[in-house]
Design a protein that fits this description.
single chain, mainly beta, three-stranded parallel β-sheet, 9% helix, Autotransporter_pectin_lyase_C, OM_autotransptr_brl_dom, Pectin_lyase_fold/virulence, Autotransporter outer membrane beta-barrel domain-containing protein
């Protein structure tokens, strides 16, 4: 089916997700609860380097309606990150991509 996020709505992925339908995003998609605004503020205070498990979101089509997809990336040489895969379809509209460095805090 189709997944629709309205403005102000959020969805937190806690593992790999394969959507069998389209995603229409006017809200916020987080790849885990560590990239929500409250978690980012908590980590800025704690500055820990806990292990991170990256996730993949796969969908046939993505229609952006001004929403944001929040992804995690390691900038310290390991070249790993969350992944957004458009499988066989297309991305249309406007979607913001926000990246949070979860690697070395000195970068």
């Amino acid at each position: 089916g189709r997944t629709q996020l309205s403005k102000g709505a959020s969805m937190v992925l806690n593992g790999d997700v394969v959507s069998t339908g389209d995603i229409v995003n006017a809200g916020e998609i987080y790849f885990d609860n560590q990239t929500t605004p409250d978690a980012v503020l908590s980590r800025a205070v704690a500055k820990g380097n806990a292990p991170v498990t990256f996730h993949k979101l796969t969908t046939s089509n993505l229609t952006g309606q001004g929403g944001t997809i929040n992804m995690r990336v390691r900038l310290d040489g390991s070249n790993t990150s969350d992944q957004l895969v458009i499988n066989g379809g297309q991305a249309t509209g406007k979607t913001w991509l926000a990246f949070t460095n979860v690697g070395n805090s000195n970068l």
